[in-house]
Design brief:
Layout: H1 2-36, H2 42-63, H3 65-83, E1 90-96, E2 102-110, H4 111-118, H5 122-126, E3 138-141, E4 146-150, E5 153-157, E6 162-165, H6 173-187, H7 196-232, H8 236-267, H9 270-275, H10 278-283, H11 293-318
Antiparallel strand pairs: 1-2, 1-6, 3-4, 4-5, 5-6
Pfam families: MRS2-like
Family: Belongs to the CorA metal ion transporter (MIT) (TC 1.A.35) family.
Keywords: Coiled coil, Ion transport, Magnesium, Membrane, Mitochondrion, Mitochondrion inner membrane, Transit peptide, Transmembrane, Transmembrane helix, Transport
């Protein structure tokens, strides 16, 4: 009996020891982790350090945006100015004299000299500067000259001279040669015909009209041939070609319309048409106000012909 009692007490002591050891084991990590836990102010401090590291960069960018833009602009301007050559102030021109003879072929002239000689403003020459892209045809009337910018022709017409500016990037040398030949022949014509400046203007408009007609015929044949092919079979390649031809036709119609509008704009300005009689002005001939029937007939004739080309282009688009 004593053994049984002793065994029971011993087992009870062992259980208590086990519970005590287990309790100490379970509570030790909790106490240790509590002791090793980071202070609550540590995370905010980390955020503060992180933001304080990025903030100066953002602040610096916000405070100096204008400086960076100014530096970029200055760099671009400096690069452009370094690339400019003295020849940028020069224009290549072909000059015909009062007799219709070619006086200078592709000669180089300073813009300032041209402005002084022909009493022009610098902005007037920008309209006919061959290196400046300008798709809008214009006819400008000045005191002693008529400035024409149409398609492949950029010219300055006076009462006794014609200055043709070389067209940069023009690939049709044959068209230019035909125009120059016709211009020479027209200016050399003697007799009681139109004055010198109107003969020059007639040659210019005739060359423009010929260029439009030739391109119209070319596009018409392209589209007509393609439509004939599509009657037999339709495929992806033919659709792509049709799209390309349609865009080309739309571009052509736009250019022809702009030419027509440029001529009509002069026709709507009686003062400009009066000022275009350069020979009478040079010779001191008095003219009645709005007495410009000769010029009006010339311009209306070409305007109607260009209008017909525009209408034909529109009909092809509808078809």
């Amino acid at each position: 009996m004593h053994r049984a009692l002793w065994s029971h007490c011993a087992s009870d002591v062992k259980r208590r020891n086990v519970f005590s050891a287990l309790y100490s084991v379970l509570t030790r990590p909790v106490i240790a982790s509590t002791c090793q836990r980071r202070p609550p102010q540590f995370l905010p401090a980390t955020r503060h350090i992180s933001w304080s590291f990025r903030q100066p960069q953002a602040q610096e960018f916000i405070e100096h945006p204008d400086n960076e833009e100014d530096v970029a602009r200055a760099a671009i301007l400096d690069k452009v100015m370094k690339g400019r050559q003295p020849t940028d102030l020069m224009l290549r021109c072909t000059v015909l004299d009062a007799e219709g003879n070619v006086k200078t072929i592709s000669g180089q002239f300073k813009k300032s000299d041209l402005c002084a000689e022909h009493r022009l403003n610098a902005r007037d020459l920008r309209k006919i500067d061959s290196r400046v892209p300008n798709l809008v045809p214009t006819i400008l009337v000045r005191k002693e000259a008529i400035l024409v910018n149409m398609l492949h022709i950029r010219a300055l017409v006076k009462a006794d001279a014609v200055v043709l500016f070389d067209t940069y990037g023009s690939a049709d040398s044959r068209l230019h040669s035909v125009f120059l030949y016709h211009l020479e022949h027209n200016l050399k014509t003697k007799g009681a015909g139109p004055p010198y400046e109107f003969r020059a203007l007639e040659s210019i408009l005739l060359s423009v009209l010929s260029a439009l007609e030739a391109e119209m015929v070319f596009i018409r044949n392209l589209i007509g041939g393609l439509l004939a092919e599509m009657e037999d079979s339709i495929d992806h390649d033919r659709f792509k070609r049709l799209l390309h031809y349609s865009r080309r036709l739309a571009s052509f119609k736009n250019r022809a319309t702009l030419v027509e509008e440029a001529i009509d704009e002069v026709l709507s300005q009686d003062e400009d048409m009066d000022a275009m009689y350069l020979s009478d002005k040079k010779n001191g001939v008095e003219r009645a106000k709005h007495d410009h029937e000769e010029l009006e007939v010339l311009l209306e004739s070409f305007s109607k012909q260009v209008e017909e080309i525009v209408n034909e282009a529109e009909n092809i688009e509808v078809r």
